[in-house]
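Suppose you are handed only these lines of text.
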Amino acid sequence: MYFGYAAGLVNHPWTDTSLPVNLMLMQRSARGICVWAPAKVNLFLEVLARRPDGYHELATLMTAVSLYDTLEFTEERSSTAFGNEEGVTALRCNAPSLSTGPDNLICRAVEVVRRASGRSDGVGIRLWKRIPVAAGLAGGSSDAAATLAGLNSLWRLGWDRCKLMQLGAELGSDVPFFFAAPAAWCTGRGEQIEPLRLGRTLDLVLITPPVGLSTAEVFRGVTVPNEPRSGAAIRQAAAAGDVKELGRQLHNRLQPAAERLCPAVADLFARLVSLGPAGQLMTGSGSTVFALCRNPGEALSLARALTSARDELGGARVFVVRSCH
Ligand code: C5P
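From them, the structure of the protein bound to cytidine-5'-monophosphate can be written out as follows.
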């Protein structure tokens, strides 16, 4: 079981205010820049329309949560790294299953920064992966946002939030959110951001099945509703910090499509319902589902109940987290 309360992560005590980008947890390390990249969950996700460019028009309420990947950025002159003639990108990662090649969104983010800045310096990146992949938690997008922010700082580019969001949108629909986190109402394909302040810190338990889901595949299976659900009530509940009402208003249009592709999503969702939290939902395009709890004690006992039934739940991983603020 993972506890996102550990070491005061939730309150961001390590934010180095001398750094120009104040949207992620950043710290100068002895060797370079360290960035803590949070996961996110969607408390509401409605699909409004299919667009001619293949994307879908969305309305979604997202909050960052206290489950973090860590990235360390350093100057790199290694000749073993891959890269173009000018600069090298050497990505090392604790998760052997993850590609560290040019297809990794982190490496693509480095190329975006090189192109936009004209800089060709080599960079070394160490990634400590804790956020499950293909799980609806936007770990890859958060890592990409952290890379833009980290290089902005390492190379002293002086880009503002607006520029970082613009570059982030080129990399993925969820990337710009991380420059507006902790919480936001997002529209368009997810890249139009309206920051929102949660009325209270939310206690959540995430449960991630061992099987991930492809975002594109889930979107392919979605039915665009004739009468989309309004987000007015959940925005109001979120701003007021009314957990009971938030629980009632949780909604994700992608969940039926994800459940068809991955029955574990439906099984875990049913298990959460039986444990009686304020609400439960799948996040993003899955496969993680979460329980919205009334307080930290409830989150802890719910997580204990889930971990004690771990074998029954097919080896799903459990994370106790809080919304970032
Ligand atoms: O932008 P991103 O790379 O995160 O999107 C992954 C895939 O998810 C897209 O290629 C698209 O098929 C689908 N998607 C969508 N509508 C969105 C966001 C993503 O159809 N708003």
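What can we learn from it? The first helix runs from residue 105 to 117. Residues 6-22 have pLDDT under 50 and may be disordered.
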